[in-house]
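Final paragraph of the annual report: two paired records, presented back to back.
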Amino acid sequence: MKSRIAFSLLTVFLALTGLNPAFAAEKQSFQEWLEHYRAWDRLEKQYAQESAADTPEAVLKRAQVYLNLNSPAKTLEIIEMTPAFTGKDEADRLWLGGQAHRGLGDLTKAVLWYTQATKFMADDEIRARFKGEPALETIWHDVWVKMYWSYLANHTLSRDSQKEALDMIMVVGRKVWSNDFWNKANFIINPDMLPSASTAAKAPAEAPATTAPMVPPADTQLIAQALAAASLEKFDEAAGYVAKLSNETVRTFWTAVLYFLDSGNTPEKLDVFLEGNYLKAHAFWAGNVLAPYSKSRSDWFLGNPDSAAWTKFRNNILTMAPADAEKAIDNELGSMLISEQTAALLRNFKLALSLANGNTQVATTTWNSTDKNTLPICLRLAGLLAFKDNLNKILPDKPAEAFALYPVLTALSGAAGEDILPETEAPFWTAAPANQLQALSAEQYPLDRLLLLAYWQQRFAAEPSVGLAKRAAYLFDDSSFGIRSLIYLADDAVKAKDLQLGALYLNRIDEPALPPELRMAWLDIKTRLELDAGHQGQALETYQEMAKTGEPVPVMTRLRMALLYQQRREYETAQKELLALWDARATMPTALQAETLFWLGEGEQAMRNPDKALDYYLKLAWQYPEENIWCLTAMYRASLIYEKRGKYETAKRLLGTVVRNASRKEQRVAAQARIDAIDKKMGAEKDEDKSTLVYPF
């Protein structure tokens, strides 16, 4: 009877949930059942075991499963090892490849795969898919912009292929998100295709106010001489040329350039550029476009700065009169015994001397016969300014190197009065108030790298966000702003316990090249990541590196490491860390001050120093009564010490406060249990007002 009733109840339950007991097992295949419960790893095995495992449908299912498992590398492995399909299957294959590249953080490849997928889709499907992919509009914009910047720096045979890719991405952008940016992009990349709209599209509606002339031709020549002198590490001579510049703000900018070349540091005060509304000059230093050269500036100088032989030869030549120096170099060049590498170095030396000394005739002849790829960056820029040469002639042959150097040369050239791209970029010394930055960067000059950098810095300072940090880390990866954005992303991911993502961001940063304060932030995040991942030994090693930097250690990281040392029974080391925290208590909230005292007490207790432990517990209970958890726990710990010493009344008073004020029932029960135990030890109750002093006779 009971079994029949149970069966009837089960039947009713299954009916209410939509499952008929007779057909419950038939409604879903095992694969569908696994998919419902998101058992992706088991589902992939099922697909792989199918007899038709090589069909497009099966391959695409397996690739999708690995995306669901957050294993985009495995998805790519399947996709790339599979021959191209046709029609919709090929569109799906390429689309999954785009998603996998995006999952790996390679936005450029993702966009290229998505673009290829559109060749197998109708326009309606393209719009639906693209608008269904999260944040794809901003990614499409940023990838096109970054590829365009790379295209400008490319003067090799691959330039045509790059142009073709830009066109394909732009066509999709116009099709899915038809707006002003994509219309301008179309004109900029194909100016001859829109003759009727050329005037309207090409010119900004209203030119921003500028101070003219900020850098007259004579000042441009002085800057070229300063750079030539700097290439020989003659910074005093270079500073002398800069001091003659007619505009104070321009002088400040180029003084900062020389300071960076000499020390690797950027100027601390940038107010002069903000006061004059020179947005691009401020962005150059605030975003630190020169960040890739912070660690080493050897690429900027002539010869090997670490070579004693070269330094001695250079210094001997520099002590001579200009005519004698030129003659000495010519004598060396006339030798049959020198290598071509040495000959190139000597010719470059001759160029630097003649440029620095203002010997235009010799400098021009030497420049025209020089292999520009052998020149240090200072001399490349000096020649570009002195001889008004084409930028492409001084860019490196390797596209990656050219792309890295291009923004530096264009910005510094503009700062010296020679704007490289007047059609698409605002003049370097454009003066406009900060509230016009959005209009300048988004409407008038949407491809101006420094204006965009300035605007994003402004937005991030006002309201930092993960979304903006992702875009900055991608577009400005070669600036300190981009690096700071990566650190922001890594910190956010580790705080959210997404350790894999945090590690991905950290690994994208060239840690040895970081300035001290950013290196400390990098090490701090790495330490916390290793602690959360359970790699205590690695965390200790990283923390020791932090301590060696001499930079202030973040409070919470120091506390976590102190507790780790306590767990490892390294109590003395733990106490040193906690005492360092206590010394910095003025910068800490009261809850953290109280916690620090508590762990100091715990450490002394563990080292069998109950007197010192008692001092910390009682000081905590007295000084921080508002920090209920730490205060009451300290009183409980102190009561145990007093109880052990036979000071029962003191122990009971402390425990009584715990019973009255504890918010958790467990604490109240534990404290009351101790009071009861003490009462048993004390025997009959005593009058509390009566003295506890006992006369033995």
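The closing record of the year follows.
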Amino acid sequence: MSVTHSLFRAGFRCSALALSIAGASYAAAQSQPEVVNVIGQAAQMQQALEEQRLSDSVESVVHADAIGQLPDDNAAEALQRVPGVSVERDQGEGRFVRVRGLGADLNSVTINGTLVPAPEDDRRAVAMDVLPSELIQSLSVVKTLTPDMDANSLGGTVEVESLSGFDHPAAFYSLTSEASYDDNTGDTSPKVSGALSNRFSLGQGVDNFAVAAALSWENRSFGSDNVETGGAWDFDDASGARLEELEERRYDIERERTGAGLNFDYRPDDDTELYLRTLYSRYQDSETRQANVIEFADAQLPGERGDAEGTREIKDRSETQEVKSLVLGGERRLGDWTLSSQYGYSEASEDSPLHIPGASFAGNDDFIDAGYDSSKEPNLQINDAFYQASNFTLDEIEREKQLTTDTEQNIRVDLARDYFWQGLPSQVKFGTKFSTRTKDNDLEVWAYEDLDSYGFTDAQLNMANFINGNGSLGPRISASALERLMAGLDAADFYDDEQSRINDFEIQENINAAYMMNTVDIDDLRIIAGLRYEGTRLKAKGTGLNEGAFEAVDERNDYHHWLPGLHAIYQLGSNSQVRAAWTNTVVRPTFGQLFPGFVIDGDEAEFGNPQLKALESSNLDIGIEHYMGKAGAVSAFVFYKDIENFVYNANLAGTAEYAAFDEAYTYVNGDQASVYGLELAYSQQFSWLPSPWNGLLMSANGTFSKSDADIEQFDTNSGTLAKRSISLPGQSDTTGNLTLGWENSRFGIRVAANYQSDYLSEVGDVLDKRYDYRVHDQLFIDLSAHYNLTEHLQLFAEAQNITDESYYVYTGERDYNAQYEEYGPTYKVGLSLTHF
């Protein structure tokens, strides 16, 4: 079977590349890489490897022609197969991408060359599960930035390229339909997607105008079970760590994803290209959370029993995240000169209409014989009275609505000229970019408390009047019953002016950039040297509360960065190369850290810090790679990052203007941090083996890294400045992937394992590492198989998380729970029709 007949399911529902080798290389002015006739999974690996090999950067690629060889639901999960990349998960689904041990907020995401803003009010990280994979032609992670690229990532830049009509030689269409089954809830969920493209002839040209469109829709129902303590351990008791409170949670979730893209490309002649790229994604998340909260009268050891206060809670909300992107650009070649320009507009929003973020029913009396049996996965033990709704009375209902928007616009112009320097082929390139970004948050809060003063009796507020059956945690609270109660009240009486005003803000960030770089080829050596300038102007407006009085906040922060870079790529032979890169990058603090609001209440204060310095990193990468043909490659890279001004949360009480405060929490810049490590990758199709073993293929990669950062805080007890060393939050020492597959022209199967070691999630107390939050290591195993019913029709089946891996966060040591969550496996079956 030919390569094109083997590349099914162009919806890119799953990861194409289970290996995605770190490292790529330049081969211009050399012979082209070997062209090998391979099929299916191996063809997808080969295509991505060739693209990486020709890159000027250390780059890993996940290509759309990979279509469904692994059961990855979204772009984040596809990228987790890449060396050095791991993902942060939300309710078991991959969401945020970490690169080389650096948190998602320290990396950037672009769509068709324009930055993607973040829907959440406090983050820069882009939730990759918002982007339907069917709209994507390729994903790449660029780990060494050249001077003509935005310098706003410390780990790497994820580049998303959408489908183009020129990606296929003729008319193309695909249609995929699938159903997934969630083992935790027993729900079955549908998904459909499709893509089409074609070329047309305009004027005197032939096939010079291309149109591509894609559409995706999924409605997934699933759930999870959770038990957490929030780190409420008392470690100072001589008899052992005692637990103060715990909470059981049950999540029932419905996520609807809708995406659409429409792209136009026009090539009126051989020297001109014009394009318009559009992408729209809508992600609606509806969540109901039932919870049991227990606060022990006296902190307890496992197995002990005693009195406790009990609370029953509910959260009921629906939020919609949208991402819109439009990129208009073109390129014109004028002899030795090439002029390119681009305008980009992108907008991300998160809209949470009026909802209940929390409502609580307090127990009428203390409950007896309360306790738990394990410090890792606390199993609540309590008398039957806790599960009787009549023993609880409505205490408070919180109500809120929130709208966050993040908009980015940019204009970029680049000019390049090819020339010879002392007989050596060279290129000089320079350009400029102007971008403006605005993050706006509007939150309104209502707190329904003391309802007995509004004429309600205890009998009317009894929980028995607000239930709609039983669940795994006992009687289920009805959100609609609570809404009916609030409908009879005047909302103005319960408006929380403080929370509503303090959390509103607008942050504007303007970045002006310019660069110059030169490339020269000296026999087998390519050298790229350049300098980039980025000037940042920040404006932050918000509201503070000072001893009950509101104050307007208007902050300014301007800074400049000069960022040199040097890349070298040396061809050892036709199939081997060495590359080295010294780069400098910069990342602005998150919007939550730059938050302009504050609260000062007596001797306690909490505030953001718009005057934070940007994080700066000097990066060194050295590696070697060897390509073996037939989807075969092996590579090894070492990297080192020297980071300045990393940001962490600290208590400034006892220092300077906060000398008289007991608490003064804000964000501060640390002095220095470092990350260093080794990336290894291997892939191979064993085509030389006798049949049927010649259908085997394998890919494996591993990243082994370390990080170190010093944090400090004034210790009011000792009157001294205390310091300690931590690893950077989000950094796993070990990440790895192993994929084994087999295929022929009719059938293919793959099993993939993804591993990441434990990592620091959050510093709980700068002065006491026992209260740090760490995420336990995770090993996810997925299985996929497909059968080609005809040349164009494929049947596929998939299983995700077949070992039922959990999410476990612990406090200080692994025995002490902060959060434990289970999701269960998910199974899928579907049909895909593809025509080239």
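The radius of gyration is 28 Å. This concludes the annual technical report; the extension proposal builds directly on these records.
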